[in-house]
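Incident log, structure service

09:12 report received: a user says their structure output differs between two submissions of the same chain.
09:20 pulled the input from the user's history:
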Amino acid sequence: MLLLLTNSCRKDDFGFSYLEANPYVDMITVEESDSHLAFPTIAGRKNGSKLLIAYREGATHISFDGRIVQKESYDYGKTWINRKIIYEPSEPNGDARDPQFLTLPDGRLICRFFVRTSREESAVKMICSDNWGISYYPMVDDIPKPFESEKYTAARGNMLLINDTIYSTVYNRWHDSWLLKSTSLGQDWEFVSWINRSDRSVYDIHRELNESSLCIENDIMYIVARSGYDAPRKLHMAKSTDWGKTWEAWEELPVYGQAPSLTAYKDAYILSYRNNNTAQNEHALYQFDCTLFKGGKVISNPVTILRSGSPDIGYGDVFTFDDFFLLCCYADNRIYCFKMLYDIFD
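09:34 re-ran on a clean worker, output below:
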């Protein structure tokens, strides 16, 4: 296979080059609809015998009617079949959103998401499958909240599995974020630390952290998080040398972004994110970008995957093979799956 790229590129104010060409081998539409389809996650068997994509389906981006839909692929993501609803809220006006898969060491598959019942109340839930997505059973109905008065919790980004311990970040509607862990492979959870709320020395700068992803390198845990709400702001990063008990070395990454996702690739991580700085380029469009992240730094030129006039774009997730990786994301009421070669980062 050949990856065809033009030599055209542009420079942003950080000195990075953003590729202008379509940097993928193949683009597959997993589903398109008049409904709002968004926030996909992907999981699979390493031999490619089965892949799963799950995503939210609702009337609009913020409607209280979301449910989690799943589709399957048996040909490395070329075609997607067997559409089915794997979770639909039983609560009146329930809105299930932001699913995230995690494969456990024993072969079970977790799907985590959160369910809003109002603008002030929501809960993070988990379902589990023993047969790779054929059927699911309830696992956790409400991941523990940090204090009794908290009524709203949400989660977005990957769950990190290290030595049979799962780490996950959660946030509330005030954009306070905290770290949880499970030593029972997702059945029970305990509070580890506030990520931004308790450290008053960085409270103002990092006050609004919500969507975030985790990774681990040489026993150092890193977090990449969205900072702020609607304003174009750079992604923020911090690290922990005590397994998430404390966070330090806060800094801005040289990319604007929301909804970051981290996936291990060789000795680095593929970082995907929505770039909402429309003033950054001559197209004046929102973008879905990806780059490489290592040691708390962005180490490659970002690559633009999609552009749209609507901010309703992105929220990617990645599944890796030896010679290529699959990247799922959404835009314009469509779920996409891109087949990409690793040398786009060269």
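09:41 both user submissions now match this output. Likely a transient worker issue. Closing.
09:42 reviewer note: The chain has no helices and 27 strands. The chain has a mean pLDDT of 89.
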